[in-house]
Amino acid sequence: MKVIIIGGGRLGKQLANAIPDSVIVEYEKEKTALLRTLYGRDRVIEGTGTSEEILKAAGIEEASAIVIATNSDHTNYIVALIADRYKVPKVIVRVDNPENVEIFYQIGIETVICPAIIAAKMINSTLYPDAREISEIHVFEDSPLLGKCIKDIGLPQNAMVAAVLRGHHFMKPGEDLMMERGDHLIVCSTGSTVPGAEDIISGGEKKLRPFDNILAVLRGDNDLDIVLKETLCLAGSFDIELTVASHIPDLIEKAVSRAKNTGLGIRTHVINSEGLGELGWLCKKDLNYVDCVVFAPNGKHTRGSKVETKEIVRFIKSLNIPVLISRGTCPYRKILTMMGFEDTCQKSANFALKVAMLTGADLHVMNFRDPEDLEQERILQIKRLGRMYGIDVKEEVVEGNPTIEFVSKVISGDFDLAVINWDSTILKRDVLKRMFYEAPLSILVYTS
After folding, report:
1. Which of 12, 104, 210, 425 is 20 to 30 A (C-alpha) from 231?
2. pLDDT digit string (tens) for 76-114?
């Protein structure tokens, strides 16, 4: 039985000791020299496992099995693809990052070993031999858990935090460990699950809502099939409250009638004009309970509409709540957002994920990374939370001009909603203003 081992680290050496007929492929020269003193020159090949020539030299064409055990998941993935192409009967892959396990299963690798997952399970079974319930809790920016130590969480006696995932790292859940935004908790309980235990540390269902009360602004008959349709679709999930405002009483009556057909009750408010200036004032006074405003722009992006474009910008800047510029594209199938090195982008990406959770849509994240690649942990948090709630989160790294690449996605027709942060400097605002009128999808503008 011919076995090829990719990677001559600690795991590779243990395998070489256990499998005398194995061949090791090692990239680093110093390690190669050491391995050859231990196992002989014929059993150790110097080179990268991503090279087909090196793998052929190792005997991949007649190999019975290949164990891919480097410390780079990306390298392991490439080697796994090559092994699959050469139809190696048994392929075993070591995966460092738990979030990458599913990727290897998707390409047909049946044996995927992740030390972090194995260690967590062993620790859990040791701490909780009678554990019957394991749950995951994500620390949102507005979570009551944020800034608290584990000892101050207030979990029931039969529950305990077994592990805290912070980015790529497992944190020891000591009682003085303070929770940070994006932390992911593994909570174990013995016996029966205590009702409301998750609410204690997550804030309950309310914390998963992107908003609690939506205001639909109807400025013409077309808005019944655009603005109202999209608002009813959103309000129908998680029992979100709905308010309708218009300067045309007949439109309000029609909106109430349509809402009744869906079983939703609504509040109504008559405004004096269709302009957004008065509406901004009302949102701060009589309608201050509203936390999202939905409206459709009037007309197309022409010289005459530049006046309203300025009005829309003033309206967005005057409010500290999300504004949805509606195209009536709900229910959403695919949501697009941009994430980068600014905290504002992280917040809008989290907000976009909440909308995806609300609607069941897939989330596509365009990730504009800085030179130090600090966005890896941030996108990991988004993916981890998406997996927790069954949302498919797809990442695309932006290497060119972020505005151009984002706009190309917006106008592609592949998405139903774009979520942007007005305070971000990554996307050019002049282009965003044109999107208010020209984009074929709805745009949710989020302000920090």
Report:
1. 425
2. 999 999 998 898 999 999 998 888 888 888 788 878 888
